[in-house]
Each structure stands twice: as C-alpha cells, then as structure tokens.
Amino acid sequence: MRRPVKADLMPWFARALSSSYQHALQRSMHKARARRRGESDLVRVFVNPRDPFGLPLLQALVQLQERFRVRFQLHTVWQLDDEMYPEPALWGSWAQQDATRIAQLYNFTPPDRPTPLSETELKSATAQLLHAEQANDGLNTAARILADLWSSNSQSEPGPAPTDLHDQVLFENEKMLRRLGHYQGSMTWYLGEWFWGVDRLDHLERSLTNQG
C-alpha cells in the first residue's frame, strides 16, 4: 500500500485551515452583532413538546443558569420536518427510550411516561410553554411543564389550546429556527453555534467561559 506523500496531505490541511478560518470569522461576526444588540449574554433555547429530549435539556439548563451570568430565551416550536422525521411514531418511541436513559444518567426526571401523549395534552403544553416564554423564570416553568407532560407520575390536566396569537408566535419561532440554521427542538443556540440536548452542553459551557 502506497504511503501518503505531501501532495496527498496538502488538500486536507488546506480544507482544515480554511474551515477553521471560516468558523472563526463567522464567530467574530456573531460576537460583534450580539454586542451591538446587547445580546452577548443571550442563549436561545428551542423546545418542542413532542420531543422527549427537551425535558433533560431544560433541567440541565436550569442548573447551568445558576453558574453563569447568562439570559436564556425560550422559543417553543411544533413542526417536525417530514424529511428529517419520515417515521415520527418510530422516532418518538426510540427518542423516549434514549432521552430516559440520558436523564437517568444525569439524575434528572426522565421522560418515562408509559402512555402515549394525546394531541390535546400536547397542544395544551404548547400553549403553556408559549406563555412561559414571557415569564422571568421561563426555564423553570418550562421544565415543570414538560415534567408534568412526560414523567411517569404525570398528573397534568389538559388546559387551554393554543390561540391564533399562539399560532403566530409558533410561526415566528419556527421561522427563526430555520433562519438560524436548524430544524428541530431540544437545541440551544449561542453566538452562531448550535448545541443539541444535554450531551453538547459542555461545549456551550466552554463558550460561555471564554466570553467571561
């Protein structure tokens, strides 16, 4: 087998350097834009009540909020992209199992509800999450909402369904999600970078630490 030579490695190094430079440039642009808007400490959190990974994520962010001087802005979304979720029922089953294992690993309340979520419950939770977006303790409120919805000892009572105003907020949230470059819930966005679920929050912590 032929050993790689310098000519083989140079394109790889060039791509790596180019990618690193582009990432640094984009990050600098996001930092400058956030500084102008007074949003250097703003972290956006996108949550879909149908996504069980949102429950451990919100519980982790509540703890993170206690350690960093940072603002978390909650954004509720509803749609599941057909191309990304061709089998939503199958995805939901596996996602709940995985999210439950992750929550147990971190000693969080797991989304281990044994019965399927009804459309009425989901829409009611969506309305509550949209209301929580306006609250000062939005993360804590949202975590309680999803715990009531997803946990095995759930005693949630279906509340009011989303109104036309709620539908408009959902539309704007989903529009923002796509504009920023993603398609699903359980995502955290900070200075142009995305962090999925609990597993990637160490990268968010590192970024927040670097920002002081």
The number of strands is 4
Q: What distance separates the N and C termini?
A: 50 Å
Q: Give, in spatial order, the strands making up the sheet with the most strands.
A: 2-1-3-4
SSE run: HEHEHHHHEEH
Shape: globular
Quickly count the helices: 7
Q: What's the helical proportion of residues? A: 55-70%
Average pLDDT level: 83
Radius of gyration: 19 Å
The poorly predicted ranges are: none
The CATH class is identified as Alpha Beta
CATH architect. name: 3-Layer(aba) Sandwich
CATH superfamily: Glutaredoxin
Q: How many structural domains are formed by the residues?
A: 1
Q: Major β-sheet, in short? A: 4 strands, mixed
CATH topology: Glutaredoxin
Strand residues, percent: 5-15%
Structural class computed from helices and strand pairing:
alpha+beta
Q: What this model shows, in words?
A:
The protein has a four-stranded mixed β-sheet, sandwiched between helices. The chain contains seven helices and four strands; from the N terminus they run H-E-H-E-H-H-H-H-E-E-H. The chain has a single domain, classed as Glutaredoxin, CATH 3.40.30. It is 56% helix and 9% strand. The chain is α+β, with helices and mostly antiparallel strands. The mean pLDDT is 83. The chain starts with 5 loop residues before the first helix and ends with a helix. The longest helix has 32 residues.
Topology, element by element:
Elements: H1 6-37, E1 42-47, H2 54-67, E2 71-76, H3 88-105, H4 119-132, H5 138-150, H6 164-180, E3 187-190, E4 193-196, H7 201-210
Parallel strand pairs: 1-2
Antiparallel strand pairs: 1-3, 3-4
